[in-house]
User: What shape does this take?
Amino acid sequence: MKKLPKNSFYTGKLAKGCIYCSHGSKMVLLITGLCNARCFYCPLSEKKKDKDVIYADELLARGENDIIMEAELIEAEGTGITGGDPLVKAERTAHYIKMLKDYFGEEHHIHLYTATMNMEKIKKVIEAGLDEIRFHPPWQLWDKIEKTKLKDIVKNIDIDVGLEIPVVPHLKKETNHLLHTVDKYGFDFINLNELEFSYTNVEELSKYGYVAKNDVSSAVKGSEEMAYEMLNWGIETPLHYCSASFKDAVQLRNRIARRARNVARKYDVITEDGTLLKGIIMAGREKLQEIKEKFGIADDMIAWDDEKKRIETSPFILEEIAEYLPYKCYLVEEYPTADRLEVEKIPL
Assistant: This one.
């Protein structure tokens, strides 16, 4: 067993897609929010769940140009295609795989998650250029996986193929059956994800008595402990356990740091977490020139933010001039992502 940061671990070797993810160099392409599996633990947000939308990372994509732009902003070396279930929209998925390969080249690594066991649809995405496929059988099938087509499908796939499931403590018996059965199927890897709370699954998870592992985590207490127990189950297929904190502190942090380098204005300060720190003046656009001239601020050190209807400048400049302005002023820390999630807002 080899340790990774934040209590993650793997045996054997890591899936290639996971290596790119850990570098933050994989764009997450949600191809649709539609899915036929009804997993009680599904963490998908309300704006995506059961909705036929496309998101490139946090960007609601209106077409190919949006997807390419997001990939370029994070300097993507690959794409992870997710959902919903991408194979609910197999034609669309194949189209975007081909588009990404044509634009970025064959070396652009693409992996995909699916609950669909349909060889025709699987062949379609493989022929389009898919490099790696990860099956997530609906949890209702875990204790009877041998009755599905999964074994035959795995045998007929000539790209990297894995199994990926969350670690659900009250489904330990079903998980044990699943892993021991598929251990003979010829999978290249088995990925195990720490179970997490989200706004959309908290009610369902709470029905089973689950609680958060601590005050600052969305991870479910007991999930990580079970993952470590699984090391003693005698599974020969390489295992990889990915903790919730690894996804946040390593994968996400690395990805947003890559994006920050490309979206930061000259006046933005990129923090060590990859977020952007900026000075905010709550004044109208017509006040921009007046403030610029009064305090001798260079053109590239102050700007109007049309999206949030405010004036932005360097946090260092604003700390010097805030007391002389008749407007509300703040230091704001936000993600460099398309949704520009605000982390902190400090009044000056």
